[in-house]
Design a protein that fits this description.
The termini are far apart. It is globular and about 85 Å long. The strands form six sheets. Strands 5-6-11-12 form a four-stranded antiparallel beta sheet, covered by helices on one side. A three-stranded antiparallel beta sheet has the order 8-7-15, with no helix packed on it. The longest helix has about 50 residues. By secondary structure, it is α+β, with helices and mostly antiparallel strands. It has one domain. About 30% of the residues lie in helices and about 15% in strands.
């Protein structure tokens, strides 16, 4: 009888090396495909926000929602607006980008941040005051009588050299060039930090949630903490497009569109 030969140690090591090489080639492609899928889901969620806000405007003489209790961050969305959206076929998960793993993991903390009257049975807040911390940013005007550090028509958005028109906080759907007016966008924000690529940390953002629960907020669609890949931009005419991150730099530091701590970019 002939002896059965097994694999030698060298042959096994070669096979393991080949498998490791293939994994190294395939895993980045797989992760990229997953992120592309998450971007598509995110774009669809933003589109649902746009539809809901336009329905609101159609029912209110073209006026977009005025928050009853606006927050300082662009992610702060008043509960009266949230309840209206929920009544128009939206759900809690649609307010959070699938690419933002902090928002997905700690969604309830962001959702209940400034209002603990969520009733899961009827899927709405029972008190219209306060706001949620959403996973998206809203380029909505606030009450012009609000304090100066809140967004409003009294605080214009800075115009950058490549802008073809002056960006603006939106109060109504009756504006020029609605296809160029951002309304709901991916959250791209950062805290200033030295020795980083753009002078900002985009992944570990402390604020009210951190003070309350020691949970960092974060930019969606991150390449790493020093660099976002970009974001989905939802426009007033209800179309959505992907915009790669391409910040304006001043002395090596990215210039935000709004705010400083944190700065918001779009």
């Amino acid at each position: 009888m002939s002896k059965r030969k097994g694999f030698t140690l060298i042959e096994l090591l070669v096979v393991i090396a080949i498998i490791a090489l293939l994994m190294g080639i395939l895993l980045p492609a797989l992760n990229q495909a997953k992120e592309q899928a998450r971007r598509q889901v995110c774009a669809s969620q933003i589109r649902q926000h746009l539809y809901a806000l336009n329905i609101y405007a159609n029912d209110n003489d073209t006026k977009l929602p005025l928050p009853s209790t606006p927050g300082n961050w662009l992610q702060d969305l008043a509960v009266n607006t949230v309840n209206f959206m929920l009544e128009n076929n939206m759900s809690k998960k649609i307010f959070y980008c699938p690419s933002n793993f902090n928002h997905q993991k700690y969604m309830d903390l962001f959702w209940d941040f400034n209002n603990d009257t969520w009733d899961s049975k009827i899927q709405r807040f029972t008190d219209d005051s306060g706001f949620i911390v959403s996973g998206y940013c809203y380029i909505l005007d606030t009450n012009p009588s609000s304090v100066n550090n809140r967004r409003s028509v009294q605080n214009p958005i800075p115009k950058f050299p490549e802008d073809t028109l002056q960006k603006k906080w939106l109060r109504t759907t009756l504006v020029s060039q609605p296809s160029s007016r951002e309304l709901v966008i991916d959250s791209i924000m950062g805290m200033t930090q030295n020795n980083t690529k753009y002078g900002y940390n985009f992944g570990d953002i402390s604020g009210g949630i951190y003070t309350q629960s020691q949970v960092y907020d974060s930019t969606s669609h991150l390449k790493n903490n020093e660099e976002p890949t970009g974001g989905n931009m939802g426009f007033l005419d209800s179309h959505v497009e992907w915009r790669p991150f391409d910040a304006i730099l001043t002395e090596g530091e990215a210039v935000p569109r709004y705010g400083t701590v944190p700065g918001f970019f779009w």
